[in-house]
């Protein structure tokens, strides 16, 4: 009986062991930054926070908000001078106190993310911090007491000491170390694809986000599997030529009459073109065509917002002069005709339909991508937290755009008709889309294009462009800029 029990326990060992997580060490990731550096804000929003949400179980994260600041002792206190002024010093202190008081990074990082996302354009760091604390149900009074007292002063001095102890010394922020080390290779990879970097360094069993790295996607829930398979098999089919079998050097007498006539015409055209070639060559060279990037998306899809914020808009800011941008805000919606109007049903509810139409109206009214894209980017950054109309009005005010015309459009027949056009564009995709964000390059969509655009749109655009590359393409290791010391 004892032997049988022992055998049973031995049989259970594999299943018991498999229920425990790996004992592989976590990846130690440290970010040295400053609160008002736009490039630090971008890195936190685009790379750090999304990566933490996906693979926090294998991350040991340290945040050091000090950056390119300097300190000096004055009596019993430390006095800090920050690269972006006193407001940045205040922001650094707020984040330092939050990190210390909340202790657990799972509590402090959402606060830091909220603060960095909303501090841009605000004159009052404390007001932003209080709003973030309230939304996250954090006691702001204790943070405020820390910031205004000796505790915050000493904590920020510790951040200064940690930053000054870096080896090699930091030259800019954001400055990233992995397992205590910093190299240009680590930095460039972190700025481009932090998730992949963390997954590469982790020596244990990889979590699922490491197995297939992709942005979140909003899949169509109504596409039958058989239609999906058919869509993926669609290919261009060309009928065979009537003049097959003609070889180079074959005498014209051996070619059939219809084909001989076609060949003579083609040879004549070729002769004319060759004769005119010197004329064309001495003229100004033709400009290379722009790279056509089209994004099919919906306004409340998290993966769409992430792609716009982390890839599409930053790439447009860097190489917009070689891009022809098309935005199609419809996504996985459906439409039906009721009288003279179209009725739209959206994947994320009525608010998404309103957001789609607002963006459609803005695209139509503002016309130029340099005007409508900043508005779309602003709206996609805030729409999940506010009523779509309120968020749009706020963005229009920030950008000096007349919101009344957009509002009139989205609430009337014009917006209804324009959104129907977006539906037609989406439904005309070949192959049909089955998730969003759905990206086409020069009118084509493939898995390779989608995956490359998802993580390195800048590189994809630069590699596709046939003309003289802009400067941003020559240094395309990262889509993120940096705040250099003493700049």
UniProtKB/TrEMBL annotation:
The UniProt record lists the keyword Membrane: yes
Keyword annotations from UniProtKB, A to Z: Glycoprotein, Membrane, Secreted, Signal, Transmembrane, Transmembrane helix
Sequence intervals crossing the membrane: 267-288
Signal peptide: 1-19
Location of the protein in the cell: Secreted
GO molecular function: oxidoreductase activity, acting on a sulfur group of donors, disulfide as acceptor
Gene Ontology cellular-component annotations: extracellular region
Family: Belongs to the GILT family.
The protein's name: Gamma-interferon-inducible lysosomal thiol reductase
Phylogenetic placement of the source organism: Eukaryota, Metazoa, Cnidaria, Anthozoa, Hexacorallia
